[in-house]
User: Which sequence fits this backbone?
């Protein structure tokens, strides 16, 4: 353990908002369409001054903290920054962080080009693409600023990624937001057909005051049923494409450790560095209320005191937010697996973040079905 | 039987070479590897955040 960082302030992921704008306009986006307007006050891209200061501070963090942390380039759309800015940023990051420190880029895939991928390969930065399923599902929500679907452009980007000479490293998998009205089997087999190394699924953002799209009530289980069907397809596939969220849940049930934010009881230390260098809380909190991801005492990475901030009471309180406090959660037999879910899903104005997840019913339904499915398989090996 | 992680850490000890289910075979192998090599959650995979773009 380094001198300055305690367990309570260790960082797992530094998520960097390298671009504050996006070239598409997904209807469900928590950055632009759920009430937060911070993006509109930011410059489009991270400045050289901010990059310099950030890299210096992250270098200090790597010395102070024994634990390896991940870097995620995020936005907006990170590839909007263009090849020269991307090369400069990755070069600076790799000057202070060895290749033991994973760097990944989350993109909508539209701007993927060989030139961009060459830069990513040069600095060992992998690329994960967001796509929600086949064209009819994807284009319902992931649309351009002209309201037209982006599916065809994303597929072109994925094709370029798959054909790159370094694709085995670069291609980090797919990320999909669930449409509970879709057919899980169709979606799963579509992702298999893309030849991706893995896929992850996310529940739509929402909370008790603003139910996620596709949920009729707090007690309905549309997402739980969808996940149950997906699990059945997955477990019956002789040549499955790994599904990260299901893999992590099964691993916990089998005695392993979860590696995912919003799952299990392992504390997940994440900080967000906004485009102007401001250190923010988990950015998905934006979906709760305007400014929910801001710390009370704003710190900018250019103030050169990241380590001090990570040791502050305010940061500790933020980190402890992810631990569920609701009495139902604390007495729940599935808490070790569910972990109370993502913080943003617990919000309402009355109890703030001290509710169970808005997806509690879905998760309980899914987990109980997962246990039954696993037991049905495992009983043959007792 | 699957109930919670603590119980299963003790009770589930399946030889992955005898597991027919493809998903469980891979995951049991991963759990075994991670235990033997003291791989912690943070360095299992590079992309664990829950947000798309």
Assistant:
């Amino acid at each position: 353990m380094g001198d300055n960082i305690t367990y309570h302030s260790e960082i797992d992921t530094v998520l960097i908002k390298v671009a504050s704008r996006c070239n598409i306009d997904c209807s469900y986006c928590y950055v632009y369409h759920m009430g937060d307007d911070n993006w509109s006050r930011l410059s489009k891209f991270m400045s050289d001054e901010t990059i310099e200061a950030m890299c210096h501070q992250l270098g200090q963090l790597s010395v102070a903290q024994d634990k390896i942390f991940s870097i995620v380039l995020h936005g907006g759309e990170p590839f909007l920054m263009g090849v020269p800015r991307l090369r400069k940023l990755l070069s600076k990051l790799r000057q202070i962080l060895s290749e033991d420190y994973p760097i990944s880029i989350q993109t909508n895939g539209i701007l993927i080009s060989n030139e961009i991928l060459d830069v990513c390969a040069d600095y060992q930065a992998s690329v994960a693409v967001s796509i929600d399923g086949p064209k009819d599902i994807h284009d319902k929500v992931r649309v351009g600023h002209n309201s037209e679907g982006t599916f065809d452009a994303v597929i072109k980007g994925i094709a370029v990624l798959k054909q790159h000479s370094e694709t085995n490293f670069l291609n980090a998998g797919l990320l999909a937001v669930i449409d509970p009205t879709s057919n899980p089997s169709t979606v799963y087999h579509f992702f298999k057909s893309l030849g991706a190394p893995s896929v992850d699924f996310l529940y739509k953002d929402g909370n008790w005051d603003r139910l996620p799209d596709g949920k009729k009530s707090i007690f309905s289980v549309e997402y739980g049923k969808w996940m149950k069907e997906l699990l059945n397809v997955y477990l019956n596939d002789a040549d499955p494409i790994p599904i990260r969220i299901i893999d992590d849940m099964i691993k916990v049930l089998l005695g392993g450790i979860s590696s995912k934010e919003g799952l299990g009881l392992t504390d997940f230390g994440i900080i967000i560095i906004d485009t102007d260098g401001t250190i923010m809380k988990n950015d998905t909190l934006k979906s709760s209320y305007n400014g929910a991801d801001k710390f009370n005492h704003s710190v900018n990475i250019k103030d050169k005191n990241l380590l001090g901030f990570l040791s502050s009471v305010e940061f500790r309180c933020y980190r402890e937010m992810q631990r569920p406090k609701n009495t139902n959660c604390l007495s729940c037999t599935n808490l070790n697996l569910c972990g109370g879910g993502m913080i943003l899903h617990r919000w309402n104005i009355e109890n703030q973040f001290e509710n169970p997840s808005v997806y509690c019913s879905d998760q309980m339904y899914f987990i109980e079905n997962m246990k039954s499915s696993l037991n049905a398989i495992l009983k043959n090996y007792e | 039987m699957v109930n919670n992680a603590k119980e299963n850490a003790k009770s589930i000890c399946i030889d992955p070479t005898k597991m027919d289910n493809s998903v469980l075979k891979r995951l049991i192998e991963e759990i075994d590897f991670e235990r033997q090599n003291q791989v912690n959650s943070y360095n299992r995979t590079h992309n664990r955040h829950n947000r798309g773009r």
Chain A has a mean pLDDT of 92.
